[in-house]
Design brief:
- The N and C termini lie far apart (42 Å).
- The chain is α/β, with parallel strands linked by helices and 304 residues long.
- The chain is built from 13 helices and 7 strands.
- Strands 3-2-1-4-5-7-6 form a 7-stranded mixed beta sheet, sandwiched between helices.
- It binds S-adenosylmethionine (SAM).
- Residues 2, 6, 8, 30, 32-36, 53-56, 59, 75-77, 97, 99-101, 124, 212 line the site of S-adenosylmethionine.
């Protein structure tokens, strides 16, 4: 099932890194095709439990029909709230494999891929109202400039923002082709790479991906049992930086100090992976989508 929906990345590294306790309780924040979940379940005994989150309802079709699994079709930013709802106050491990699945990417009408023409959508959670259409057609020039620069590291973000704002004055940018056509004259370098950066920025904005990740990370030390582990796979440097800083310092600041109080944040996590784990040659050959994956693992300290 998972091979057509999504090939799990760094599978062995994740399950080994989580140091799974057979009767433990684990959370897969990004169930997707269920590849990582399946491997976790294989290491759990009958008393083990797995809480699987995915904000995309489609992921439900991959559920294994296993009494040990609780599926939560919501954003992982509400992790603690939904765990409480299921009477779970602490867990032995948390996994997040960020971004979109191959399934989402390959479904033309979802609007995630530059390869197809479709409406500008890009929502992982279809219950959400804001789409990429809203971002492209209603954000101000400054807002667009900032998001293309920050989220896509697009070199000519300012020109890009101005071009969108000018273009939509004559007609609404409804589809992927409308957007690509509006940008034809300003593409820098390889068009595929350029559009990929533009799409990445829009996707991060539509799904508030960095905010959700920050909120998730802040809940991790509160929810892990002492000795419990967290494993996060990221696919771009913005996400990786948040994870790296938070694991190292318990804070998103580069210094680990609260800029207002100048006090050191208390860090309840110990870094297990000094450098991020990346896919080996074999995995890269078998799954080109694994190429930018970085796995970081941390452990909750026994006592702080
Ligand atoms: C890269 S895929 C995960 C693939 C999965 N590990 C597997 O083995 O098939 C990411 C999945 O997480 C979901 N997702 C991404 N961000 C999320 C969030 N903030 N809350 C809940 N689900 C999220 C997406 O809908 C997608 O299905």
């Amino acid at each position: 099932m998972e091979s057509s929906y999504h090939i799990p990345v760094l599978l062995q590294e994740v399950v080994d890194g989580l140091k799974i306790i057979p009767n433990g309780t684990y959370v897969d924040c990004t169930f997707g095709g269920g590849g990582h979940s399946k491997a976790i379940l294989e290491r759990l005994n009958v008393d083990g439990r797995l809480v699987a989150f995915d904000q995309d309802e489609n992921a439900r079709e991959n559920l294994p029909g296993d009494g040990r699994v609780i599926f939560v079709p919501h954003n992982f930013r509400h992790l603690q709230r939904f765990l409480r709802l299921h009477n779970i106050s602490a867990v032995d491990g948390i996994l997040a494999d960020l971004g979109v699945s191959s399934h989402q990417f390959d479904e033309p009408e979802r609007g995630f891929s530059t390869r197809y023409n479709a409406e500008l959508d890009m929502r992982m959670d279809k219950r959400q109202t804001m789409t990429a259409f809203d971002v492209v057609n209603s954000y101000g020039e400054q807002q667009l400039h900032k998001l293309f620069e920050q989220y896509g590291e697009v070199t000519n973000a300012k020109t890009l923002a101005r071009t969108i704002v000018e273009s939509r004055k004559s007609s609404t940018i409804k589809t992927i082709d409308d957007l690509k056509n509006a940008l034809r004259g300003i593409v820098k370098g390889n068009p595929n790479k350029y559009f990929a950066q533009v799409f990445q920025s829009l996707r991060i904005e539509v799904n508030e991906e960095l905010t959700a990740l920050r909120e998730l990370l802040q809940q991790v030390p509160l929810l892990l049992k002492p000795g419990g582990r967290v494993a996060i796979i990221t696919f771009h440097s913005l996400e990786d930086r948040l994870v790296k800083n938070f694991f190292r310092r318990g804070s998103f600041e580069e210094t680990g100090e609260d800029p207002f109080t100048m006090q050191k944040e208390v860090n309840e996590l110990k870094v297990i992976t000094k450098k991020p784990v990346t896919p080996g040659e074999r995995e890269l050959k078998q799954n080109s989508r694994s190429r930018s994956a970085k796995l970081r693992i941390a452990e909750k300290l026994m006592m702080v």
